[in-house]
Amino acid sequence: MHDLDQPLERNQTARGNLRSHHMDIALGLAEALTAIFLAAVIASLFAPPVTAPSMAMIGLLTGLVVLRRVLADVWFNRSEIAGQKGLARYRALLSRTVIERLPKEASGAIGTLAIEGAEPIAARLGRYPTLRALAIAQPLLVLAVMGYIHWPVALGILITTPLIPVLMMLIGMGAKSASQKQVEAITRLGAHYLDRVRGMETLWMLGGGRAVSQEIEDKAEQLRRSTMGVLKLAFLTSAVLEFFSALAIALLAVYIGLTLLNLIDPLFGLTLTPWDGLCLLILAPEFYNPIRRLMAAWHDASEAKSADDKVKSLLGSHPVTVARPSAPESNTSDAVSVLRLAHYSVGFDPKFPLIAPFDLAIAPGVPTVIFGASGSGKTQFLNSLLNGQSRLTGEVWFSGSPIDTLVDVRQSVSWMGQHQWFDEGTLWDAMTYGRRDHSAEICLEMLNRVGLATQLGEDPLARQLGPRGQGLSGGQLRRLGLARALIQQPTLLIFDEPTAHLDADAAEQIAGLIQSLDVAMLLVTHDERFKQAGPCWMLANRTLEAM
Questions:
Q1: Which of 190-199, 315-324, 407-416, 481-490 has the lowest mean pLDDT?
Q2: pLDDT at 17
Q3: 484: phi then psi, degrees, rounded to nearest 5
Q4: Bridge partners for 540 per DSSP
Q5: How far apart are CA 397 and CA 328, in angstroms?
Q6: How does DSSP classify residue 324?
């Protein structure tokens, strides 16, 4: 079973080394023992008859205070570091699993969940397991000492303790629901925001910018309200715990005070000295302190559980894998195909596919062209090839080897869409995505190959581009995009409407340039200039048929 399919506490990859966790528990127990010794020293200093403390006693008291603070800080910081490392491992595991499974969810939801929603997982994997163990071990240790001093007091505290987890369970039911709503609100806001950003140019042209801004504000307000709901429950939890701990300590103080004033007799005929009374009063808050710290981290742990459940719902309860078929028994043309699809279908509902099952083979050095009207499913078909989204059935081979998606052979595939995006910078940066991992000679060769070097004059690689490629015409940007695709020396080149939004002359030049390339190509277009380029297919009425 995959680690992400496991409950968060059993996710071995995210949890890391358990030895560090055990060391944190040992340090926490040492802190409790220090607190017990500290209570004994304070009681000795202030129990009647009170005398001036010696320098040795003052030094011992100071040393115990410092030691306790150091021990608490050390195990807490170690737990925090372990939690952050666990969160980093969890995010890395989530990223790898998303690439493997390719869920059909908006990438904005997944990104927001991985960045914002998963943040409480650091507490769940770090300090929460330690606090949960110490919330049992430290109170029992303190209770044992209190029982040794005056067991009726320890028994009274023990009797009131079960009320706390019962009320915590009742509040926790509401807290779980609130945490789930908050995670849902975060992921919805991320998906909504990314979707609107992707279409912002179109929305702005249609005058919908203000409406979109208002939508995002409304979604953010919903997230704020859900977050405030979680915080209200967190404060309610703390208030309940503080009430019962204060009530128990107050009753204990009344009993000890009345007994020391000889207004009542100690229970069961026992004796209670001032030293005993002071020790019990100092130790009583130490009994509740670990529980208080656990409750402070409990809401983070609850949010982490909700985030992990959301991850499981996004990825599915089982890995979404495609069976790797054996090599196909086919004719000679299939055997030399760069890309071959068998019984391939696209859509979201098997009963109503966007594209019914079909077979397709792309030969090397020959463009394969798919025609179709806008909205026929061409882009959805390309998405299914590139990342597996909306793929229903089918087997895929690349150069004779079975693959799941083209992501598996990303180094051998280049893609050129109808919208070219270039950051500000030099032409060299634009061609290499700012990495400059290809030499200037190779870049110039690609620019010459697409006929762009002569248009840009001397030293074209040093030419500066503005935002989104400002400084070049639409046709030149399309040529630059083609050069950037060719620089990878791909085995397969995929085009999505390569001549869209160009004037007739520029479209004619780009079409001729593409048809002159000696590389396997898959073109998705409605431009009839490519009808003579190679094998042609028509996508219409949810079927893909040869023309």
A1: 315-324
A2: 55
A3: -65, -35
A4: 543
A5: 9
A6: -
Question: Which stretch of DSSP H or E encloses residue 382?
Answer: helix 378-387
pLDDT of residue 326: 44
354: its two tokens: 């966007």
Write out pLDDT tens, residues 258-268: 999 888 888 88
Residue spans per domain, the chain = 3-315, 332-546
pTM summary value: 0.51
State the Cα–Cα distance between residues 520 and 494, nearest whole angstrom: 9
Q: How far is C-alpha 537 from the chain's CA centre?
A: 40
- 87-139 per-position pLDDT tens digit: 777 777 776 666 555 544 445 556 655 665 566 677 677 778 888 888 889 99
The pLDDT, as a whole number, for residue 321 is: 43
Architecture field, domain 3-315: Up-down Bundle (1.20)
pLDDT of residue 489: 86
Q: Flag whether pLDDT at 461 surpasses 70.
A: yes
- 131 neighbors 219 (Cβ within 8 angstroms): no
CATH of 332-546, one of 3.40.50.670, 3.40.50.920, 3.30.1330.50, 3.40.50.300: 3.40.50.300
- Nearest to residue 100, comparing CAs of 384, 409, 388? 388
Burial of 75 (0-12, 13-18, 19+ CB in 10 A): buried
Task: Give me the chain's average pLDDT, please.
Answer: 78
For range 155-184, the mean pLDDT = 70
Yes or no: say if 473 and 503 are a contact pair by the CB < 8 Å rule: no
Q: How far apart are the C-alpha atoms of 343 and 432, rounded to whole Å?
A: 37
pLDDT at 205: 64
Rounded to whole angstroms, what are the CA distances from 227 to 178, 181, 184, 233, 294? 8, 9, 11, 10, 20
DSSP-assigned letters across all residues of 79-137: HHHHHHHHHHHHHHHHHHHHHHH--SS-HHHHHHIIIIITTTHHHHHTHHHHHHHHHHH
Q: Which of 369, 367, 387, 388 is nearest to 378 (CA)?
A: 369
CB 546 within 8 A of CB 517: no
Contacts with 2 (C-beta within 8 Å, 6 or more apart), sequence order: 97, 319
Q: What is the C-alpha to C-alpha distance for residues 390 and 160, in angstroms, rounded to an integer?
A: 57
**DSSP of 252-313:** HHHHHHHHHTTSSPPGGG----HHHHHHHHHHHHHHHHHHHHHHHHHHHHHHHHHHHHHHHH
